[in-house]
Write a structure and sequence with these properties.
The complex is a heterodimer.
Chain A: H1 3-10, H2 17-53, H3 57-72, H4 75-86, H5 97-101, H6 105-129, H7 133-141, H8 146-176, H9 188-199, H10 202-231
Helix pairs in contact in A: 2-3, 2-6, 2-9, 3-6, 4-6, 6-8, 7-8, 8-10, 9-10
Chain B: H1 8-41, H2 45-60, H3 63-89, H4 99-124, H5 128-136, H6 141-171, H7 183-194, H8 197-226
Helix pairs in contact in B: 1-2, 1-4, 1-7, 2-4, 3-4, 4-6, 5-6, 6-8, 7-8
The chains are: A mainly alpha, B mainly alpha.
Transmembrane segments (chain B): 20-39, 51-73, 93-114, 200-219
Family (chain B): Belongs to the binding-protein-dependent transport system permease family. HisMQ subfamily.
GO biological process, one term (chain B): amino acid transport
């Protein structure tokens, strides 16, 4: 930390160098947690969404059940089940998994990933179902196989339609990640709770962290707007 | 068979608390939504600005952070207010700021912002010809609102209200974090005491699923009623 900044902070009662570093650590944890769960969730969601559109009920049924359960129950319950439940699995304490899951970060990551994958699956499924028939027919007329058609035509077209809803899901995930603090993770909210209980200053502690979340939210909104402009360039009216 | 180790009645009481919390929050959210939508559609720039500020700020802050701000901050504010009243005016006034109040306030305000957008779209979907016709019949502004705008707006708003309600119901779980004895908190305490997380959390999850399923049916029924006179396109 630069010298002048440390000096400035030392004059402030609550926002001194220690607490600011505590907030910074929280920010890093929040960003890691949200980013990792979104990336893994997206990778899970694409194949699941494709399975979900298959007509055979034995294929699409289990995916439907998964998304129904994870979208129909609160994330907090899912987090509690995974966090408290993993230690109850018999024999897990002797395996290397226990070293990983003993740290609350990983149960939270698992819960968030499964949750966002369920929402994203439904978003992508909606976009897949809305693929114009003509695009598929054209691809078939070119002699493309199912896999090639999926990769070159259907999925790129669906991603463009899904991006608006997906940006909402990203913001939702950022906000939902605040509950990680409930299972003792020091994310942004966890840092705010620590500083609240240390100084008994609820407004300072929580308003500061609310502003950080707000800045992150607007950053995401801005990023997605740029991405949308880039991906939907071909649909812009000519006279603009 | 299901064995709740004697926590059964308490879990049921928790479920009732959850339902009460959800309905109280819904009432506040609907009121805030109507207020916000009227402000957004009003001619006054100040009202529009205030409503836009409200919806933007709410969408930027996580629900849990806002809930903690209201709960812990509300307590401090209430103490200061009661001190001020007592020392300066001799009035003995104190209200215990409990988690239920903080929860209703937070969830109501958050979903009020989402309802604002829902109602705004629904009001805009009422054809202006309808309003002009009401005016032509000599109705005043309130009559036009209650007889023409409101019933027709409801039809467009119901699907959005239904979606918001489903999310709201799940958000109520967060109030357990600030100490409300809803079913989530009781399940958490019971599972800690009995070392049986699945036994208590899975019934609570099923409870949430069934609450959403039941209310979904109710919304479908309301939707049918609201659309009673509408001739379908296809």
């Amino acid at each position: 930390m630069p010298e002048f900044l440390a000096e400035l902070l030392n004059q402030n009662e609550i926002f001194n160098a220690t607490t600011v570093m505590h907030y910074w650590g929280g920010l890093v944890t929040t960003v890691q947690l949200v980013f990792l769960s979104l990336v893994i969730g997206l990778f899970l969601a694409v194949p699941l969404a494709i399975l979900r559109t298959i007509r055979n009920p034995f294929v699409s049924g289990p995916v439907w059940l998964y998304t129904y359960i994870f979208r129909g129950t609160p994330l907090l319950i899912q987090l509690y089940i995974i966090y408290y439940g993993i230690g109850q699995i018999e024999g897990i304490q002797e395996t290397f998994w226990w070293d990983i899951f003993r740290d609350p970060f990983y149960p939270a990551l698992l819960a968030f990933t499964l949750n966002t994958a369920a929402y994203t699956t439904e978003i992508i499924r909606g976009a897949l179902m809305a693929t114009p028939q003509g695009e598929v027919e054209a691809a078939k007329a070119y002699g493309m196989s199912w896999a090639l058609r999926m990769r070159r035509i259907v999925l790129p077209s669906a991603f463009r339609r899904a991006i608006q809803a997906y940006s909402n899901e990203v913001i939702f995930m950022l906000h939902a990640s605040a509950i990680a603090s409930v299972v003792t993770i020091v994310d942004l909210t966890g840092a705010a709770r620590d500083i609240y209980s240390r100084f008994y200053a609820p407004f300072t502690a929580f308003v500061a962290v609310a502003l950080v979340y707000m800045a992150l939210t607007f950053l995401i909104v801005y990023g997605f707007r740029r991405l949308e402009q880039h991906l939907l360039k071909h649909q812009r009216p000519l006279n603009q | 068979m299901l064995d709740f180790h004697g926590y059964g009645p308490e879990l049921l009481r928790g479920a009732i608390v959850t339902t009460e919390l959800a309905f109280a929050s819904l009432a506040l959210a609907l009121a805030m939504g109507l207020l916000g939508a009227s402000a957004k559609l009003s001619g006054s720039r100040a009202a529009r600005g205030a409503a836009t500020f409200y919806t933007t700020v709410i969408r930027g802050i996580p629900d849990l952070v806002m809930m903690m701000l209201f709960y812990y901050g509300g307590q401090v504010l209430m103490n200061q207010l009661s001190d001020y009243l007592y020392y300066n005016h001799g009035i003995d006034f104190f209200v215990q700021f409990d988690p239920f109040m903080a929860g209703v306030l937070t969830i109501g305000l958050i979903f009020g912002a989402y309802m604002t957008e829902t109602f705004r779209g629904a009001f805009l979907a009422v054809p202006t010809g309808q309003i002009e016709a009401g005016r032509a019949y000599g109705m005043n502004r309130f009559q036009v609102f209650f007889r023409i705008m409101f019933p027709q707006m409801l039809r467009h708003a119901l699907p959005g209200i239904g979606n918001n309600w489903q999310v709201l119901l799940k958000t109520t779980a967060l109030v357990s974090v600030i100490g409300l004895s809803d079913m989530v908190r009781i399940a958490e305490q019971a599972s800690k005491a009995e070392h049986a997380p699945f036994k208590f959390f899975i019934p609570v999850a099923v409870m949430y699923l069934s609450l959403t399923a039941i209310t979904e049916l109710a919304i479908k029924w309301l939707n049918r009623r609201a659309n009673a006179g509408v001739v379908g396109g296809i």
